[in-house]
Write a structure and sequence with these properties.
Elements: H1 10-52, H2 56-94, H3 98-152, H4 165-173, H5 178-194
Length: 196
């Protein structure tokens, strides 16, 4: 069963979705703190203007405003760095290197080969089970004939002396069409990896 594989794995796509969500939150925080920084700069500017104009209360609060302004710059820089780091991680996941693609292709090929080998074993097991079902059916027919002959000969038997119960139980628990189910499950396995 030849499979068409995605360039990146489902796990990588899920991680990309998580990182992109985190990036959007980070961008929102940058926008918010950028506006806050601008507001703090305007307040500090007004305080300087009023302090120079002789309003000493503005001079009193200016150091606190400048400290808040510096803290805001540091905070904004931290968010910007985190955003850059996230973008680098996203880029690395979304655009694997040639070596990473070759490694993924190698493991995909190995998985496909092993899955096909297992599927062939399932098909073989299915053939064996079909043969076993056929033999059990023939055995059941022979048991029915034995019971018929025994009744004609006026034999009486204790419960299950013809040893039918073991084989009826075996016949009832045998799975049907293993290979067909295995093919569906193998296709599902590969489809799940391709899901976006």
């Amino acid at each position: 069963m030849k499979q068409k594989w995605e360039i990146i794995s489902k796990r990588a796509r899920l991680e990309l979705a998580r990182l992109n969500s985190e990036l959007e939150k980070c961008k929102s925080l940058i926008a918010y703190h950028g506006k806050e920084l601008q507001r703090k700069e305007e307040i500090a500017s007004f305080q300087v203007k009023f302090a120079v104009g002789g309003q000493h209360i503005a001079d009193y609060f200016l150091p606190q405003s400048l400290q808040g302004l510096e803290g805001g710059k540091v905070q904004l820089a931290a968010y910007e760095k985190y955003k850059t780091d996230l973008e680098a991680k996203i880029d690395a996941l979304a655009h694997p290197t040639a070596a990473q693609l070759a490694e993924r292709a190698k493991w995909q090929s190995v998985l496909e080969k092993v899955a096909n080998e297992r599927l062939e074993k399932d098909r073989r097991a299915d053939r064996v089970l079909q043969e076993l079902r056929r033999l059990l059916g023939e055995r059941a027919e022979l048991s029915a004939k034995m019971a018929e002959v025994a009744t004609s000969a006026d034999f009486t038997f204790s419960d299950d002396c013809l040893d039918e119960l073991r084989f009826k139980t075996l016949s009832s628990v045998l799975p049907a069409e293993l290979a067909a189910t295995s093919e569906v499950r193998a296709a599902d396995l590969f489809a799940e990896e391709r899901e976006k």
